[in-house]
Amino acid sequence: MRDPDSVGVLIRGPADAELSVVLFRGGWADVDYWDGLDDGGPIPAFDINSAAAFTTRLDLWVPRVFGNLGENATT
């Protein structure tokens, strides 16, 4: 497909947590999550008008869903 209207990403993490993002050409995204325990649902996402804006949002969504992934790391 040369000119898609959307692109999707599914990120899976510990405890069956998932973050699903479908980014649409119009500058919005369908974002849903499940933390693997007892929380989940949609996350509002609009005004995403560049790759940098998407990266900024993704950097906020990942810790919300998966927590601080480094907090349980051992050295």
Quick description:
With 75 residues, the protein is of the alpha+beta class. It has one helix spanning 51-66, and strands at residues 6-12, 18-24, 29-34, 40-43. It is elongated.
Keywords, separated by commas or semicolons:
75 residues, alpha+beta, four-stranded antiparallel beta sheet
Description:
The chain is of the alpha+beta class. The protein has one helix at residues 51-66, and strands at residues 6-12, 18-24, 29-34, 40-43. A four-stranded antiparallel sheet has the order 1-2-3-4, with helices on one face. A hairpin with a 5-residue loop joins strand 1 (6-12) and strand 2. The termini are far apart. The mean pLDDT is 87.
Helix-strand layout with pairing:
Layout: E1 6-12, E2 18-24, E3 29-34, E4 40-43, H1 51-66
Antiparallel strand pairs: 1-2, 2-3, 3-4
Could you tell me the number of beta strands?
4
Main beta sheet: strand number and arrangement? Answer: 4 strands, antiparallel
In percent, how much strand structure appears in the residues?
25-35%
Unreliable residue runs: none
Strand numbers in spatial order across the main sheet: 1-2-3-4
Mean pLDDT: 87
Taken in chain order, the helices and strands follow as EEEEH
Helix fraction bin: 10-25%
Number of helices: 1
